[in-house]
Amino acid sequence: MITVSTGPLSIDDVVAVARHDEPIRLSDEARAGIAATRQHIDKLAEQQEPVYGVSTGFGALARRHIPHEQRTQLQRSLVRSHAAGSGPEVEREVIRALMLLRLSTLATGRTGVRVEVADTYAAMLNAGITPIVHEYGSLGCSGDLAPLSHCALALMGEGRVRDAQGRAMDAAEALAAADIEPLVLREKEGLALINGTDGMLGQLCLAIVDLRQLAKTADLAVAMSVQGLRGTTGVFEPHLQALRPQPGQAVSAANILALSQQSPLLDAAYEEFKTSHVQDAYSVRCSPQVTGGFRDTIDHAARVAGYELDSAVDNPVVTLDGEVRSNGNFHGAPVAYVLDFLAIVAADVASMSERRTDRFLDPARNRGLNPFLADDPGVDSGHMIAQYTQAAIVSEMKRLANPASADSIPSSAMQEDHVSMGWSAARKLRKAVDGLRRVLAIEILTAARAIDMREQQPSPAVAAVIARLRDDVAGPGVDRFLSPEIEATVQLVADGTLLDVANQVCPMQ
């Protein structure tokens, strides 16, 4: 059970609710704070003087004063008009993360909504009701407007949702089935429900968890490749890493070294390597520098996410003394920058992985293995096209590394004349995470085949990983339908199975 209170959620909290359907509760402290702030809004709503967000229009229409009898319609119209998404449906876990983070902001008591609004949001999450949100519609400024509006629309009993079983239906039907009363929004509430960085932040939290797993997976892949290529682990020794005290680099090197310990395969290759090769290629020798920089970038992104999780993002916001103030905290730039940064480093880690895979396939560089690791070269093609698949993914990831946050298209009659494009940065990062997972899986699959073809025992940790892989994917032999073997390996990477096996033998940092 995750408690949503006035303090920040953690990244793990977000993932638990978004991905694993952990139930939530709204704390008594949060409920009291929400109720106290709402009293200020109710008083302001009675004043003759217009207050932005309470008794006025929005954005470029903020100068118009709205009378009492039209304010319910004002909130309803705001949500309906802003629920303007288009394109493919966004993943369930993303929408659940978005909803939880909006609820977390409501719980700070700085948005001015009634307690009923927060309660209804929590009830929808616990019932597994997920509004249908579309790919396009957010510029990452004034918050993730269209995605959040589709969620607010569902709270009103309008629009389309999916129930806990994934069935698409009208929101009113889903709410009725869960015994949830649709909301009738009052002053300030429509705006409070749609004005936040929750969509891009939710995707950042999910990506951080996935990328931390993939950083360890990359270290495992290197440990397998250095053994499969009969290389050396000397470059990973601590005293060499200490000469350049980048923290992530030290962790990656330590993991690779530990995973490669007690390898008869490397012991047998030692003399030949010393006399014939001297050095491994950069894609092997410099892997801690790249994967370590990747780790450090993830840590930086996690710090930014932590600041954002501790924020009350709304406009206008209700200050601690009850004043309603316009602000610019909805601008998604800080989140957008790290989303783009992560896409860049993910592409580089994938690029290096693909280069290691390619070395296995070239008889001029693979140190004694068959061309393309084919059983009968010429008759068989081995893993030739697996590397093509990697190359296609890496090429796509390099395009995804082009920063979305460097762009801006003015909107709202030039009132919103600079936007972050953070939602777009988040969407392309999700594709990059999936791409990196697939590229590393293909390297692991290829390295395992190469090690088996050596007919020499690798390190205990790598031997255990290969043994587990062989439960789902057969070892070397004549050409087979390769796509299912790639997908099986991708799944073993995605669910952490291979990392778990490695960790049981050699715990990783």
Automatic annotation (TrEMBL):
GO terms for molecular function: histidine ammonia-lyase activity. Its main location: cytoplasm. Its EC number is 4.3.1.3. InterPro entries: Aromatic_Lyase, Fumarase/histidase_N, HutH, L-Aspartase-like, Phe/His_NH3-lyase_AS. The keyword Lyase applies. SUPFAM superfamilies: L-aspartase-like. It comes from the Bacteria. It is found in: Cytoplasm. It holds the Pfam family Lyase_aromatic. It catalyses: L-histidine = trans-urocanate + NH4(+). Gene3D superfamilies: Fumarase/aspartase (Central domain), Fumarase/aspartase (N-terminal domain). One of its GO terms (biological process) is L-histidine catabolic process to glutamate and formate. Belongs to the PAL/histidase family. NCBIfam families: hutH (TIGR01225), PRK09367.1 (NF006871). This is Histidine ammonia-lyase.
